[in-house]
C-alpha cells in the first residue's frame, strides 16, 4: 500500500511540474465551454438580408416591417432591380433576398393570391433552409392576420412546444458533448502518454524489475487523471449552470456517478493505447484520431447519428462517448432517473470492464 | 545447481518465432563476483539479462537467481536484485531526493531507512548541494553514478548493470568502477554488460557471447592467454569475427 502511495505521489510531481500541460488540462474545458457557449452556435440570428420591393404598397411594407422586427433578420439593403440581386449575393454578406412582385397588394386582393420569391445563398444548406423557413413563417403569419375574422369552415392550428429546452438553446446540446470530449482527452490521451513516456525513458523497465505489482503501477498512473477529470467535470458543470444557464434537471449524484464511470472508460482506453505503442507521438496520434475524432463524429453531439447511413450507425454503437452523451443528456437536460438509463449505463460499464481486462492483460504480457 | 552461486544458468534459451536470440547458454556466477557479460550488438546479451531480471520469459532452460528459481519465485528474485537499464532511468523532473525516495519507496523501505539512505548516498556522491535540485540539471556522469546508487538502494544480493557507462568520459567511468568495486567488496554480485574492453579487464570473470551462445568464459588473464592475445580487445575481436548473424 505504501509503495502505491509513493507511486501516486510521484505521478503528482510529474503532473504539477509540467505547468504548461497542467494549464492546458485545466484551461481546456473552460475555453471550450466559453467558445461553444458564446461564439460557436448553429442557431441562426441577425442574418443579413436584402429586399427587392417592386410594389411598395401597404402589404409589402407590413411584411418588411415584420421581417425587420424579428431577431432572425437584419435588413442590410433595399435593392432597386432584379439585376442587383446577383451582385448582392456575390458580396457575400447577404444570405437571403425577399422579392415582392409589382402590384403585390392589388393582385392579392383581387385574385386572392400573390407570389413572393425567397432567394437564399445555399452554399451553407442548413442556414439557407433555416432562413427560408423563418421567412415563410413570418409571411404566413401576415396572411393569417389579414384573413382576420373571415370565417373558414375548417382550420387546423399547430401548436408547438419545445420540450426540455423551451428556448431552443444550443448549449443544451453541447455541454454534454464537451464533457465527453474533455474526459476523453484528459483521461485517454494523458494516461496513455504518461505510461508510454516511462517506456520511452526506460524507467518502466526499472519499475517492472522492482517488486511493484504491474496492476498497481497501472492504477497509480490513473489516479491523478481521475482526480483531474472530476475537477474538470465540476468546472464544466459550474460554468454551464451559472454562465450558460443550462440547468441540471436530474440528480446531480447520478450525473457525477455517470461521469465517474465514463472517466474510468476513458482511462481504460488510455491504458489500451499505451499497451499497443511505445512512443509518445504514436500514443498521441492514436488518441486523437482513434478516440477523439470518433467522439466528435459519432456521439451525436455534432452530427445526428439517426441521419447517418446504417453501417455508420452500427459503428457508432461501439463508441463509448455515444452512450455517455445519451446518458448525460437524459439526466442533465431531461431530468430522467436511473431507471430510464440503466441500459445505457450497463453498456458503458460492460465496455469499461472489457477494455480494462484486455488492457491489463496486454500490459502484463508485453512486459514478459 | 549449487547454493553458493549467485546466478546459475543451464541451457537457457529464448526464441522469438524463428529467431533464437539466446541459444542454450550455461554459466555460473559466484557470489560477490564482478561478472562481465560481453558480446557484440545483437549477440543476445540484453535478452539474456532481461530473462534473468524477470522482464522476459525464457522459452526453455533453467536458471537460479539469488538462490531462487526463475519460474517459481520471480517475486522473491525481484526483491533480491537491483537493475540499472541501458537508458538513463531516473526521473528528470524529480529532484535527487525525490528520486531516491521514490525508488526506496517501491522497494518497500521505511521512511526512516529512506532518510538515512538518502543522507549516506548523497554524502558518498558529494551531492549535498544538489540534493533538492531537479535531476535534469546534473551532468551525465553524476546521473549515472546516482542511477547506480539508486539501483543499490535496497542492498540487493545481485545488481544487473546494462551498459552502465555508455557515453561517459573516462574519468567518470573510472569513478563509476570504484563504486562497483565498493559494492562487490561488500558482497554484492555485479553482473555487468559493456562495450568497453578496458572495463572487461576490471571484471573478475568475463563471458563473451557470439550469435546467442557463450563462446568463451574465464578470467581476463586466462582468456588472453588462451587466445594468445595482448589485450581483451584482441580476444573480443577474434571471437566476434566468427559471428554470422547480422546486427
Give an overview of the whole structure.
The complex is a heterodimer of chains A (368) and B (247). Chain A has helices at residues 2-17, 19-39, 58-69, 85-91, 104-111, 125-147, 171-201, 203-209, 214-242, 252-276, 280-298, 310-316, 320-333, 338-366; strands spanning 47-53, 73-79, 96-100, 117-120. Helices cover 67% and strands 6% of the residues of chain A. In chain A, helix 7 (171-201) runs antiparallel to helix 9 (214-242), helix 10 (252-276) packs antiparallel against helix 13 and helix 13 packs antiparallel against helix 14 (338-366). Chain A folds into two domains: 11-40 and 169-366; 47-147, abc type-2 transporter like domain (abc type-2 transporter like fold, 3-Layer(aba) Sandwich). Chain A has 14 helices and four strands. A four-stranded mixed β-sheet of chain A has the order 2-1-3-4, with helices on both faces. The two termini of chain A are 24 Å apart. By secondary structure, chain B is α/β, with parallel strands linked by helices. Chain B has a domain at 5-89 and 156-240: Rossmann fold. In chain B, 37% of the residues lie in helices and 26% in strands. Chain B is built from nine helices and ten strands. Chain B has helices at residues 45-53, 74-80, 96-106, 111-124, 140-151, 170-185, 197-202, 220-226, 232-240; strands spanning 5-16, 19-30, 34-39, 60-65, 68-69, 81-84, 158-162, 189-193, 205-210, 213-218. In chain B, helix 3 packs across helix 4 (111-124). The model of chain B has no long low-confidence stretch (mean pLDDT 90). The interface between A and B is medium-sized, with 24 and 31 residues.
Amino acid at each position: 500500500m505504501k509503495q502505491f502511495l509513493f507511486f501516486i505521489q510521484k505521478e503528482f510531481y510529474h503532473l504539477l511540474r509540467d505547468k504548461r500541460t497542467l494549464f492546458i488540462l485545466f484551461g481546456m474545458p473552460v475555453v471550450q465551454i466559453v467558445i461553444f457557449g458564446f461564439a460557436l452556435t448553429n442557431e441562426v440570428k441577425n442574418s443579413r438580408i436584402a429586399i427587392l420591393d417592386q410594389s411598395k404598397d401597404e402589404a409589402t411594407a407590413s411584411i418588411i416591417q415584420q421581417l425587420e422586427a424579428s431577431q432572425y433578420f437584419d435588413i442590410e439593403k433595399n435593392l432597386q432591380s432584379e439585376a442587383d440581386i446577383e451582385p448582392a449575393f456575390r458580396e457575400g454578406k447577404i444570405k437571403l433576398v425577399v422579392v415582392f412582385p409589382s402590384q403585390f397588394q392589388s393582385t392579392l386582393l383581387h385574385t386572392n393570391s400573390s407570389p413572393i420569391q425567397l432567394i437564399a445563398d445555399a452554399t451553407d444548406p442548413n442556414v439557407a433552409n433555416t432562413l427560408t423557413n423563418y421567412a415563410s413563417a413570418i409571411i404566413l403569419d401576415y396572411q393569417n392576420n389579414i384573413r382576420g375574422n373571415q370565417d373558414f369552415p375548417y382550420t387546423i392550428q399547430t401548436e408547438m412546444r419545445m420540450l426540455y429546452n423551451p428556448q431552443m438553446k444550443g448549449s443544451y446540446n453541447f455541454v454534454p458533448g464537451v464533457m465527453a470530449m474533455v474526459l476523453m482527452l484528459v483521461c485517454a490521451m494523458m494516461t496513455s502518454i504518461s505510461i508510454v513516456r516511462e517506456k520511452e525513458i526506460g524507467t518502466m523497465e526499472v519499475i517492472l524489475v522492482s517488486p511493484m505489482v504491474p496492476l498497481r503501477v497501472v492504477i497509480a498512473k490513473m489516479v491523478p487523471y481521475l482526480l483531474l477529470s472530476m475537477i474538470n467535470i465540476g468546472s464544466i458543470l459550474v460554468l454551464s449552470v451559472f454562465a450558460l444557464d443550462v440547468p441540471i434537471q436530474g440528480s446531480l449524484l447520478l450525473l457525477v456517478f455517470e461521469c465517474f464511470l465514463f472517466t474510468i472508460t476513458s482511462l481504460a482506453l488510455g491504458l489500451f493505447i499505451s499497451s499497443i505503442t511505445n512512443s509518445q507521438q504514436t500514443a498521441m496520434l492514436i488518441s486523437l484520431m482513434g478516440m477523439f475524432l470518433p467522439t466528435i463524429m459519432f456521439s451525436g453531439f455534432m452530427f445526428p447519428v439517426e441521419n447517418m447511413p446504417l453501417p455508420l450507425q452500427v459503428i457508432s454503437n461501439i463508441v463509448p462517448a455515444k452512450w455517455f452523451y445519451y446518458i448525460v443528456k437524459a439526466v442533465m437536460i431531461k431530468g430522467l432517473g436511473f431507471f430510464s438509463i440503466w441500459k445505457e449505463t450497463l453498456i458503458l460499464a460492460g465496455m469499461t470492464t472489457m477494455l480494462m481486462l484486455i488492457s491489463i492483460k496486454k500490459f502484463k504480457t508485453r512486459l514478459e | 545447481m549449487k547454493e553458493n552461486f549467485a546466478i546459475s544458468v543451464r541451457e537457457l534459451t529464448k526464441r522469438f518465432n524463428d529467431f533464437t536470440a539466446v541459444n542454450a547458454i550455461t554459466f555460473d556466477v559466484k557470489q560477490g563476483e564482478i561478472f562481465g557479460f560481453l558480446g557484440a550488438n545483437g549477440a543476445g546479451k540484453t535478452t539474456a539479462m532481461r530473462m534473468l531480471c524477470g522482464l522476459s520469459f525464457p522459452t526453455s532452460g533453467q536458471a537460479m537467481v539469488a538462490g531462487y528459481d526463475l519460474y517459481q519465485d520471480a517475486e522473491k528474485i525481484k526483491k533480491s536484485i537491483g537493475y540499472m537499464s541501458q537508458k538513463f532511468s531516473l526521473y528528470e523532473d524529480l529532484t535527487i531526493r525525490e528520486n531516491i525516495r521514490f525508488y526506496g519507496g517501491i522497494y518497500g523501505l521505511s521512511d526512516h531507512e529512506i532518510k538515512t539512505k538518502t543522507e549516506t548516498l548523497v554524502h558518498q556522491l558529494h551531492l549535498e548541494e544538489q540534493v533538492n535540485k531537479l535531476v535534469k540539471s546534473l551532468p551525465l556522469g553524476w546521473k549515472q553514478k546516482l542511477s547506480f546508487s539508486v539501483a543499490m538502494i535496497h542492498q540487493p544480493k545481485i545488481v544487473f548493470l546494462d551498459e552502465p557507462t555508455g557515453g561517459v568520459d573516462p574519468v567518470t567511468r573510472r569513478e563509476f568502477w570504484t563504486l562497483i568495486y565498493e559494492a562487490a567488496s561488500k558482497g554484492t554480485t555485479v553482473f555487468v554488460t559493456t562495450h568497453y574492453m578496458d572495463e572487461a579487464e576490471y571484471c573478475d570473470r568475463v563471458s563473451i557471447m557470439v550469435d546467442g551462445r557463450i563462446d568463451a568464459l574465464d578470467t581476463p588473464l586466462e582468456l588472453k592467454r588462451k587466445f594468445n592475445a595482448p589485450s581483451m580487445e584482441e580476444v573480443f575481436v577474434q571471437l566476434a569475427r566468427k559471428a554470422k548473424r547480422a546486427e
